[in-house]
Here is the input.
Amino acid sequence: MPRLHYLPACEDDFEALLALRIAAMRPSLEALGRYDPERARARFRQSFVPACTHHILLDNRTIGFYAVKPEGDGLLLDHLYLHPAQQGRSLGSEVLQRIFAEADRLGLPLRVGALRGSTANHFYQRHGFVQVDEAEWDIYYRRLPTRR
Here is the structure.
């Protein structure tokens, strides 16, 4: 498995990370007839917290990013995106293992939402997330911490 590296994000990374998010989500959004670049920008601007966000690096270039935020009695995996050219190579699984290790160390549940119809739903279920709720456009999952 390729070795990934991680780098904290900063406010100046907004545009580059927005472009990555759009590249990763656009096919799913278009399939639902919901792709709107202005809405995508506004939603990401509203949720972007640089202090909670990390670049995912492969061969010293950003291929994706993730953001984990405190939420209620646990953590929220608010963003996890890989550039489409990097998907399907087990890189997302490697990133999840890093996130799981932190959630488990803290003893906190991890929540995530995925766009209805997106391949992300199967990805999260395959990695132990259990569906806990759904809305018109999203399905929500939770993973309980593993005790070591």
Notes: The first helix runs from residue 14 to 31.
